[in-house]
Amino acid sequence: MSFQLHHHHHLLLHISPDNGFEDGLLQGSIFSSAGALKKYEGLGHGFKEINSEPDQQNSFLTGIQVTFNFCLDQVSLFSLLIPPLKSPSNVFGCLSAEELAALTACINQLNIERRQVLNELLDLKGNIRVFCRIRPVTLGENFGHLRPVVALDSSNIHLKLADNKTKSYSFDKVFHPGSSQDEVFSEVEPVIKSVLDGYNACIFAYGQTGTGKTFSMEGTPDSPGIVPRVIEALLKLAVDSNHAFLITFSMLEIYLGNLKDLLVPQPTKPTDPLPPWSWTIHFSSKGPKGNWSLKVITSNQIAMSSHTKFETFHLSVVPVSMIRISITCFDAPERRRETNKIWLVDLGGSERVMKTKAWGRRLDEGKAINLSLSALGNVINALQRKKCYIPYRNSKLTQVLRDSLGEDSKTLMLVHVSPEEEDLCETISSLNFATKVRSVHLRHEESIEIKNQKEFAMMNLQQKMERIEDEHLHVRRQIKKLNEKLENLTGIALPLEEQLEVSPFSTEGSLTDHDMVNTRNKNVKAASLFQLPRFMRPTICSRRKSGMDQQTSSGRDKVISKKKRSLSNCAESVTFPVKSDSEYKSDCSISKSTCVLELRMKSSAHNETEYSQDASECDLKKIVFPEKEKSYLKTTSQNGQLSHLYRNGSQRLGESSSKRLLKVDNWLDLNKNDPPISGYAPRNTRVPAILIPEKKHGYSGQKPSSYGFATTEKIFNQYSMERQVDILTVGRTVSEVVTNKPPTLKDLFDEESRSSFIVPSHAMNDQTMMQPEDILHGSSIEDDECGSAFLYDISCGDLQEYNGENEVFEMYMMQAVKDMAQCSESSMLKNGGHQSFSSEVDDSIINSKEDFGVFTPESEEERHCEEVYTKMSMEYSRDGDASSQSSAKGTRANSCRSRSQRASFMGDRNQEEPRVTLVKTQGITQIEGLYNFLKCKVQLSCATALLGLGLLDLGFEDNFFYGLML
Ligand SMILES: Nc1ncnc2c1ncn2[C@@H]1O[C@H](COP(=O)(O)OP(=O)(O)OP(=O)(O)O)[C@@H](O)[C@H]1O
């Protein structure tokens, strides 16, 4: 026995002849969605046609049972429950299902093609496109006279300036004053399609106040602008696609540099409770590109479904209003990303503050807007130059737009200009800015030939796109027809997308992201529930038991959700863990440090800023030392030297110059003063750095071992800091070297003869180099990734741009002079040249900040310093020596070095102390040159003598040599 279901209410039953049914009674019952019908009764075999009752036409067959009655015995021959989802699996049903599948596959294919073509088209057009719109003459303006701002054609704008001068600008599109909102949106539309494909986008309106930014973005009820059209287009595209989308909507305002969510109800009285939420912005230098998130979810996501609602949320005073629409699609891996967003930004008026003659709060607003615009300009400039550091953090605007401004996003800028002559200055400034933005993707002006080729390619792609879209439309119509047929047949078959059409956006009330996802799932479940024949659907009771009842939203449920709404006013508060410093071992600059801002609401003087951020970025910035520095500092502090090092930073400046130049003569002195250290002094020992510029030096971080020579332990301990000390004078970063043997006299002689040369810092220094001023002021200057120098103060964490050398030079020179003065009575002299750090100079580091400004002589020494400083300044301005030249070239280290040497020299002369050995420079004076010459001679003869005796290679640590020297 077999059967064929030809129609949902028409069954053809075939009874095989060999079953011996002739002797009994065959009874067939069919079941339909309307209930059981006894339809067949009779003898014989063959085909029997069974139809449901005429009045049951709308019901469909759900099961069949055939029984055979023979001599009062009833045998059930077969019974079949027709699977509910196959209810339309009659001939028509099968056909339509197959057709539907084929059409769906076709539409998917078309989607892929459309996406590719669109991307190609947008790539050709450029990821950053700039349009210019000229405002029409408005009421109250003089209609009669000629305007100086003219749209030459669809991409050129022409300005007539004074004295018959003209100026032209080219943009991707120029909208003349008569252009309609439709025309403007036709250029925006492709970007919206690309947003649905998962790309980030940003559309911003820029221009002087009153030039039509708001008109373009919002429009009027009669001629809606970009925002309502974008929303409408997005929803339509989402509905037309084969996927489910979750779309959330936020509206922010940046007021005086603070972010505010405009969709969160504002407390009107001070006693009103504040909504229990906070915004958290998390920045991280780690992870994938642009890994940061700003999560502000408001209760009005659904406002986007209607323009009127949107307008009700728009506040009248919105200096920089930003609308964010984020789109999530879980089931389309071919999209660029699962969640993407589009920003629609109405930037504040860009006019100059001076021109507006604003004051008070208006002035502040103007300044804040201009600051954020200039930050935007800087970001765009950095993007244009493909810099590795993009200054997104300089303003809230750029922080927020961060991942919608990069390479992988589509940016549209609409620059608005006034047609009026009196606004010409502002017009030029706006057009210049817009040109700058446009040059991000047009680095070189294209030749006409390339332009034509591009246009041709774009035209082809446009045509292809139109063809695909026509086809798409055709297929969609077919699908719709099929669905309607099926719906007529079954009364249920609503496809998922149509279920979704009514789901999140038509629902009143508040929905969070989570709710929206749930709603989507619920709708899917509800849809499949409705596809079941009624008799197979769970009863109300069973639904209640299993909790499924809540899945179909009833009016009662809505009430419940509305009750909850007051609570769900609170936006989702996302707390991100603060990463430890160790994760941010920045080698570059403070800008790489972790920065966590927590913006909590607080009352403020202005209504507009009631929810403003509490903490500024600077307050929370952490300084992360480069790893090398960190470990070094750690080591030194472990040795109890760090504080000492910093406290005595200024003194070291002077001391280092002397210390590094204590040579053979001083060594002898030192050896006399300090008793020899007994014990075995192995070769391969760690020894203080001897100036060997050719060698590559490194700091091993180990504590220097004592040394079997009569050098003082003190000196070795000091050498553990020498890395910093050394650089102060000749830009060398050597602190210690591991040599196979201790230095010999020859080494010293070599060194001595070399010490009169200035070795370029870049030739010898491959380590982080700290400059004198770094240590003086507890600051370090480091190049950021892009090579721009920043000076930041370790103590206060301020980040200042490094403004060239002069400032540093002055700081350094002042300090050098001070140091010399202090050296005059320092223990170094008293100890016969032995160095020790004196606490007397602590104040110099404490007061080091004074050195940035006016130097007020307080003591005799300071007056002396001032004198010397004046002399030096004069000398510096007079002479054109190599150091000043190198300064001009920007060789910071060299210039600082030579100046310090000069400073030391002059200081020494004034002190009338025989401290010439402290200064080994480029032979600044003849006396010193003569001295050097004689000394070299003596040393050379000494070395020759030693060589003759075969002692040269023994090294200083050798007791024999030591004995000789004594
Ligand atoms: N293209 C246009 N067609 C018709 N009217 C326009 C057009 N552009 C601007 N207007 C009118 O000009 C006036 C000023 O425009 P709008 O308020 O949009 O300027 P704005 O740049 O947004 O100013 P603000 O910076 O102060 O927000 C409005 O009355 C607006 O209707």
Automatic annotation (TrEMBL):
Residues 127-440 form the Kinesin motor domain. GO terms for molecular function: ATP binding; microtubule binding; microtubule motor activity. ATP binds at G207, Q208, T209, G210, T211, G212, K213, T214. One of its GO terms (biological process) is microtubule-based movement. InterPro entries: Kinesin-like_fam, Kinesin_motor_dom, Kinesin_motor_dom_sf, P-loop_NTPase, Vik1/Cik1_MT-bd. One of its GO terms (cellular component) is microtubule cytoskeleton. Keywords: ATP-binding, Coiled coil, Motor protein, Nucleotide-binding. The keyword NAD does not apply. SUPFAM superfamilies: P-loop containing nucleoside triphosphate hydrolases. Residues 451-485 form a coiled coil. Pfam families: Kinesin, Microtub_bd. SMART domains: KISc. It comes from the Eukaryota. The keyword Thylakoid does not apply. Residues 543-562, 876-913 are annotated as: Disordered. Transmembrane segments: none annotated. Residues 882-903 have a biased composition (Polar residues). Belongs to the TRAFAC class myosin-kinesin ATPase superfamily. Kinesin family. This is Kinesin motor domain-containing protein. It comes from Rubroshorea leprosula. The lineage of its organism: Eukaryota, Viridiplantae, Streptophyta, Embryophyta, Tracheophyta.
